[in-house]
Write a structure and sequence with these properties.
The protein is of the alpha/beta class and 290 residues long. It has a single domain, classed as Alpha-Beta Barrel (TIM Barrel). Helix content is 52%, strand content 9%. It has 13 helices and 6 strands. It has helices spanning 2-9, 28-35, 45-52, 59-76, 84-87, 99-114, 125-137, 164-169, 186-195, 204-210, 214-224, 240-263, 269-287, and strands spanning 14-17, 39-44, 80-82, 142-146, 177-181, 199-201. The chain has a 6-stranded parallel β-sheet. Helix 9 links the parallel strand 5 and strand 6. The longest helix has 24 residues, at 240-263. The structure holds zinc ion (ZN).
Length: 290
């Protein structure tokens, strides 16, 4: 069943963000075997830190082990993801935290941990900013969860224009800023992708929730963002049906939009085909060096 559903998607390569793993879910090698689709990975920053904090002996120890883990993730994977939108908001301080600030935060966290009061979730904005800047130093695509999420989030703080100053400061860093999902801020994300050369967006997760109404949000993402700055994402998680449903919804929307433009004579068929290929996978292959 998995194989049939994956084959029907037409997907030829998967980029899996591994931070949302669950004991009931397949591991990446298992997914690769079942789907027969090559998989590459993206590492979630908060999960890297959360896996090291329980055994850290001091602030310098944690900083050193984080650096090693990030180097390894940069080498093995295709990028990083931050969920600071969930844990804090995208209105985080755009300044890189100082070494003293980072050490003080880790010291406080280790005291909390030793008292049995730490819940295992990284939510300290200073440490999350530290991880974000560490990822920027490694000049890899850095994904940000943007917009729609569960009841943990304050949606108004997940508007990507709230991180405009951070985006401005990372312009020449060599990292690409990938704005994921974006609903209902697809227009704001498209604006950022238009004006900053290293910003990209997708409307992935939104499709799973907006269903047959999703052509309007895909249409809005295409208003301002250049065709080279928008990526397809299924945002599928756990169930193979989600990959197929989201591919089908995206194809339906993109097909309608481009057919309309071609029929009105604003685009030639060959150009439409070229743009659709870029949106479907070409842009992703380029940005993530797949
Ligand atoms: Zn996300």
């Amino acid at each position: 069943m998995n194989k049939r559903l994956f084959a029907a998607t037409g997907i030829q390569g998967l980029l899996i963000e591994t931070g949302a793993s669950h004991p009931a879910m397949l591991t990446v090698p298992e997914l690769e075997a079942v789907s027969e689709i090559p998989c590459e990975t993206v590492a979630r920053l908060e999960v890297i830190a959360e896996s090291l904090i329980p055994t850290a002996t001091s602030a310098p120890d944690l900083i050193q082990r984080l650096a090693a883990a990030m180097d390894e993730a940069a080498l093995k994977g295709r990028g990083f993801k931050s969920i600071i939108a969930y844990r804090y908001g995208l209105d985080f301080d755009p300044e890189r935290p100082t070494p003293d600030e980072v050490s003080a935060c880790i010291d406080a966290l280790l005291v909390e941990r030793d008292a049995g009061a730490w819940n295992g979730r990284l939510a300290d904005p200073v440490l999350m900013r530290y991880l974000i800047w560490e990822a920027i130093d490694r000049a890899r695509p850095l994904q940000f969860h943007v917009g729609y999420g569960d009841s943990d989030i304050n949606l108004y703080r997940c508007d990507p224009t709230r991180m405009t100053e951070f985006i401005r400061r990372t312009r020449t860093s060599g990292s690409s800023i990938m704005l994921l999902h974006c609903y209902p801020f697809q227009r704001e994300a498209a604006f950022l992708a238009q004006v900053y050369p290293h910003v990209y967006l997708d409307t992935g997760a939104a499709m799973a929730f907006t269903g047959f109404a999703s052509d309007s949000l895909i249409r809005e993402s295409l208003e301002l963002a250049p065709f080279g700055k928008i990526l397809f994402s299924s945002d599928a998680y756990g169930l193979p049906e989600l990959y197929l449903c989201n591919v089908a919804l995206w194809r339906r929307a993109i097909g309608r939009i481009f057919a309309e433009w071609v029929s009105e004579g604003v685009l030639g068929e060959k150009d439409a085909e070229r743009y659709i290929i870029a949106l479907a996978h070409g842009n992703a292959e380029r940005v993530y060096s797949l």
